Amino acid sequence: MKRKFSFLLFFFFFQVVLADLKIGFYRNTCPRAESIIFGAVQKRFSTDKSITAALLRMHFHDCFVKQSEKDAGANQTVRGFELIDEVKQTLEDECPLTVSCADIITLATRDAVALAGGLNYTVPTGRLDGLESNVGEVNLPGPSAPVSDVWQLFIAKGLNLNDMVTLFGGHTVGVAHCNFFQDRLSSPDGSMDPTLLNHLKRNCSSNNNGNPTAFLDQKTPFVFDNQFYKQIKLRRGILEIDQKLAEDESTAKIVSRFASNPVTFQKSFANAMIKMGNLVAKAGEVRQNCRVINKAKNRRSQTIS
Predict the structure, then answer these.
(1) 79 phi and psi, to 5 degrees?
(2) Which domains are delineated in the chain?
(3) pTM of the prediction?
(4) Which one of 59, 61, 171, 177 is the catalytic residue?
(5) Which cofactor is recorded for it (predicted)?
């Protein structure tokens, strides 16, 4: 049965141009931009700790674009759009057609990670919002993809193996629906801890929900820490691809390093997020409404030099 891919946090945008971004891009044109974004994220986080995972996923998918791309199977359950809409409206009132939706998502994700316990890293800004949206470009691998295949996707984006393993660490605050790891429960191969296996079997067979979810980090699911790596070293990875990271000879040492040193992981994650966030569209615009491209009268298209 073909399954709809809808859970992963770690696969991301489809633009491949390294942009000339800078720290404090809005210092003169919209000086309160970053504080407005932080305030909105902080308010949401105070009542919904899962917003960190939602924004991480949105940022990695980078799909806050025209409806056609949002309709792609990989993006249909990405959530948090209403928070970005709220922030965008506030910023449009403050400084119209100035702060891009791409920058809002990037900054909001940084803030959510920090609120959950991660590093409050500095983010360069100046991204533009894309002018095109093609559902055919949304091509993400499933939860059983070989490590080598996933690695090739990262290489194609200018990211290395350490970046890949680092960004999988976003799963420390994520969840997955049972249908994405049901095969590991029905046909166990010994790669999952028996206690976890039995727990997930009970959870996934619950009649209260046709497709329950499970935390990808069973220990501290709302804290942005290195617990994900500790869990997969103990054979407590929920998704097959997560568990493979701890077993594949190309990634096992990186997993061990992050599992034993939380500071190393936090710094590596911040660096990988900045590096990934620098891959943006060369040509674009600052959208007035994040859900659609601008009308001709508000077009003001730009090109990154």
Answers:
(1) -130, 175
(2) 17-140+279-303 (1.10.520.10), 147-269 (1.10.420.10)
(3) 0.85
(4) 61
(5) Ca(2+); heme b
In tens, the pLDDT along 13-52 reads 434 445 579 999 999 999 999 999 999 999 999 999 999 9
Query: How far, in Å, CA of 149 to CA of 267, rounded?
Result: 26
Has 61 been annotated as catalytic?
yes
Q: How many residues does the chain have?
A: 305
CA distance 238 to 232: 8
